[in-house]
Amino acid sequence: MPEKVIVVGGGLAGLSAAARLAHHGYQVTLLEKAPKLGGRAITIPMKGFNFNFGAHAIYARDRSILRKFESEIHLQVDWKDFTPSKAYYDLGSFTTPMPATLEGLYKTKILDANNKVRFAYEIAKTLSSIERGEDGVLIGEYLENQPAQIRDLLLTVASSNFFTNESEKIPSPLFFQYYKRLFSTNRAVAYIGGGWQSIVEGFANIIESNGGQIITKEKVSKIEMEGNRVTKLIGKEGAKYIADQIIFCIPPKDLATLFAETKYASLFDEYNQYKPTQVVVYDLGLSKRISSPYTYIYHKQERVFITDISHYDHTCVPEGGQLLQAIAYLNEDEIAEGRADEKVAAIETVYDKHYAGWRDLLVAKRLSKKATVQEIKCINDQRLMPVKFYSLPNASFAGDWCQGEGQLSELSFTSAYEVTSRILKHSKTHPKENLAEAK
């Protein structure tokens, strides 16, 4: 008999974990409390436009874990590679190419000639692991002895990848670990044709075509335990679910609630108190394209970036239309003081500057003043949660709040892959075949 696995949560982590195990012969049931799958990775159709909740960008795509899902379980991904030559910084009085390639480094005005050489040298040191950071030292402090231009550029780059305007608070080892991976890729950024919906549907099809079951509108309200093993999950109307392994792909606050009446509640206390990464997202659907020399512009002073999503993904717009996505970072003070409206005004100012006339062409817009893009923000002493606790042998955890590679959606995919790899390794369901295919 195949082993039974229950996956709680139908976001990117839950879907990818369930799909991989279903493909390898497990009896998988996925429980999702919402009517639709995807969690925060959803696509919202509106007046002919498909708005994605957050950027559906994958960083270091040729090294992305999604490539493993493609080859191993035959997930179909329509990669739309980002064009680095069309990425610019807005420094207020002028725009300049982002130094994302050697050509961009040569052309950019953000660095003088000496610092261009120095910046290239810093990249080489990162790639060779000469620079690794230091435990207990934040990247802002670690870079204090760098020339001002170099330090400023590295922190600016980190803002866009970590979606934060507090990049100086990123732990320095995490910073160099992340950029060693990103600098070594041939395709630093790619979008997904069809948006998040195509990935969500792809995983769901793999689950169901391999005999897995997906149940939406089912919120797990209680767990039962025998000793240190989770033995039963209770649904909202008393439905009972039993499995050999449970993968929880729900945020720490929900885990704290589920385990509240058990002796393991304290495992989640630390992660439940951490702050998420939150941003203002302001997307525009325009009736026709506004010509621009770039597809990505980062306004340094306002800490706002705009991406022409429809340049890469034509499926998100009606014929002749344009979809622009603007994101402004929020720090804790701005969130506490309710300053999201200021960010909205700042975004509109940047839209006015670089896409003049957008108001006359506006067909639809989507505005979220406090969108969570990662459940645990990787700054200061905030740590990502383990995918496994020693004291819970048949429970695993995955999501962008869990340990993995990268940031944002990559944490969801890599933590899910790690969890399923552990299950496959100790499998009673065709273990040799599973391991051979997964390698």
Can you describe this structure?
Residues 12-261 form the Amine oxidase domain. InterPro entries: Amino_oxidase (IPR002937), FAD/NAD-bd_sf (IPR036188). This is Phytoene dehydrogenase-like protein. The structure is a single chain. With 439 residues, the protein is α/β, with parallel strands linked by helices. Helix content is 35%, strand content 22%. The chain has 3 domains: 4-41 and 57-71 and 194-274 and 380-438, FAD/NAD(P)-binding domain (3-Layer(bba) Sandwich); 98-183; 277-374, Polyamine Oxidase, Chain A, domain 2 (Alpha-Beta Complex). It is built from 16 helices and 20 strands. Strands 8-7-16-17-18-15-19 form a 7-stranded mixed sheet. α1 runs parallel beside α8 (195-209). The longest helix has 17 residues, at 409-425.
Question: Any chance you could write out the topology, listing elements then pairs?
Answer:
Layout: E1 4-8, H1 12-23, E2 27-31, E3 43-46, E4 49-52, E5 57-59, H2 65-73, E6 79-81, E7 87-90, E8 95-97, H3 102-107, H4 113-127, H5 139-142, H6 148-162, H7 172-183, E9 189-192, H8 195-209, E10 213-215, E11 222-226, E12 229-234, E13 240-241, E14 245-248, H9 252-258, H10 269-272, E15 277-286, E16 296-299, E17 304-308, H11 309-312, E18 322-329, H12 332-336, H13 340-354, H14 358-361, E19 362-374, E20 395-397, H15 409-425, H16 431-438
Parallel strand pairs: 1-2, 1-14, 2-10, 7-16, 14-20
Antiparallel strand pairs: 3-4, 5-9, 6-9, 7-8, 11-12, 12-13, 15-18, 15-19, 16-17, 17-18
